[in-house]
Write a structure and sequence with these properties.
Shape: globular
Order of helices and strands: EEEEEEEEEEEEEEEHH
Radius of gyration: 16 Å
Structural class: mainly beta
Helix content: 10-25%
Strand content: over 45%
C-alpha cells in the first residue's frame, strides 16, 4: 500500500515500533517539527495484520524550516497509553518519494539509513523541507494487537541536541500464516482497538 510524490492522505484503520536509543530526559525542541496541514498536526492512522516475525510499517512526516540540514541521532517509538508497543526493529528515511500509509515487511519502499542522515534528504521527491521517516515494528505474541502513536526523533543542529515527536498512529495484529491466509478473526475487536488508537493519537497530537 503505497503513495507517491506530494500526495498525502489520511488513512482510516483497515484490516489488510520499542526503541533504537536509550531512554532519558528529552532534549529541547528545535527546528525539526512534526508536519502540519492546515494548521493542524498531520497524523495518519493505519491498521494491519502481520504474520508472526513480519514487521508492521508506518511512516511519520517531519518538516524543517532551518537553512542547514539537521542530523538524526536516534529514534524511538511513542507508546499509546495502556496499549502494548511491540519492538521497533527498523527505521529508515524515505529515499525516492514513494511513501506508505501502512504496510508489512521491510523495506516497504526504498529507504536510506536514518541514524546519521541529514534532513531534509536531497532528491527524496517530497516538498521542500519535508522528510518521511519509515519504521517497522514487531510483536512477539500471536493473537495480540500492538500500537504506537508516532516516533520520537533525536537530532543535532549547529552542535546542539534536540528532539521532536512526529505523529503516525499504527495498530497491528500478529497472526500465524494459516490465520492470515484464511482471514480468521484473531485479535478480538481489532477495529475497536484501532479506532481507540486513532482517538488517542489525535488527543496526544492536539488535533481538534
Amino acid at each position: 500500500m503505497t503513495r507517491t510524490g506530494r500526495r498525502i492522505s489520511l488513512v482510516a484503520a483497515v484490516l489488510a515500533a520499542v526503541s533504537l536509543t536509550a531512554c532519558g530526559s528529552a532534549p529541547p525542541a528545535g527546528p525539526l517539527q512534526t508536519l502540519s496541514v492546515g494548521g493542524q498536526p498531520y497524523a495518519a492512522m493505519g491498521g494491519i495484520w502481520v504474520v508472526a516475525g513480519q514487521p508492521a510499517d508506518a511512516e511519520a512526516y517531519v518538516f524543517s524550516a532551518a537553512h542547514d540540514p539537521v542530523t538524526v541521532a536516534g529514534v524511538s517509538a511513542v507508546p499509546v497509553p495502556g496499549d502494548p508497543t511491540g519492538r521497533l526493529v527498523h527505521a529508515g528515511i524515505e529515499a525516492t518519494g514513494a511513501s506508505i500509509a501502512v504496510d508489512r515487511g521491510w523495506p516497504p519502499v526504498p529507504v536510506g539509513p536514518l541514524i546519521g542522515a541529514d534532513l531534509p534528504l536531497a532528491g527524496s521527491g517530497l516538498p521542500q523541507g519535508q522528510s518521511g521517516i519509515i519504521v517497522g515494528l514487531s510483536g512477539l505474541q500471536v493473537g495480540r494487537a500492538y500500537a504506537i502513536a508516532g516516533i520520537r526523533i533525536e537530532y543535532r543542529y549547529h552542535g546542539r541536541s534536540y528532539s521532536t515527536t512526529a505523529w503516525a498512529g499504527l495498530a497491528f495484529c500478529v497472526v500465524t500464516a494459516a490465520q492470515y491466509k484464511s482471514g480468521a478473526t484473531v485479535c478480538p475487536s481489532f477495529k475497536a482497538f484501532s479506532d481507540n488508537v486513532n482517538r488517542q493519537v489525535e488527543k496526544m497530537a492536539g488535533i481538534h
